[in-house]
Amino acid sequence: MSDADAIALEHVAFGWTPDRAVLDIDRLRIARGERIFLHGRSGSGKSTLLALVAGIVAPVSGRVQVLGNALEAMRSSRRDALRAAQIGIVFQMFNLMPFLSVRDNVLMGCRLSSARRARAAADRPLDEEADRLLERLGLDPAALGPVPASALSVGQQQRVAAARALIGRPALVVADEPTSALDDDSAAAFMALLMAEVRRSGATLLLASHDRRLARHFDREIDLARINRVSGIPA
Predict the structure, then answer these.
(1) I need a labelling partner for 144 at 20 to 30 A (CA). Which of 16, 44, 74, 180 fits?
(2) For residue 116, which of 170, 38, 165, 181 has the smallest C-alpha distance?
(3) What pLDDT was estimated at residue 1?
């Protein structure tokens, strides 16, 4: 595995139960700074692959190296620390804290990692950086910043989740269907911000989506069906 790789998988297998495999990937390489569009039919394992790359789960076997770290050899607490400091995630189900304010949700990663907090505050105070991202995503930080996330529409929650993933210039951004709840104008604004932020920080981007129209924004496409030797198993 090369130092030039942001993500490197070798002989990786994973299943949520011992008798049901979801992923069987011999090899996958994504270079640092590369922007990858991951696609595949529903149930092909896209969300599971993103969870492995983000260190949310560990492989049953094989090697998962992310940003120079061998995730399969790390305790879950160390994977959590790496994720907080270096990985921004847009979850398919958003995973916002419903009773925290919008602004506090955006800043959550900065509360968990001093390194991420320092990067986020390099140019402006933390609250201002959170508001900058919210505004770029079409949300009014003055009106929505103090309100609880539970009061937002689905589309608004998705944009807050995106701002939370991007704050603090993470080295890797992982996004799972990040435009699924957005209208065309909001999706276009999201993609413009996402690409601007990853270029600004030199981050690697791995985005999974059913919307093949998004592929034009990326350096390369990966069809999961071509690299995953398991098929037909819900992810």
Answers:
(1) 180
(2) 170
(3) 56
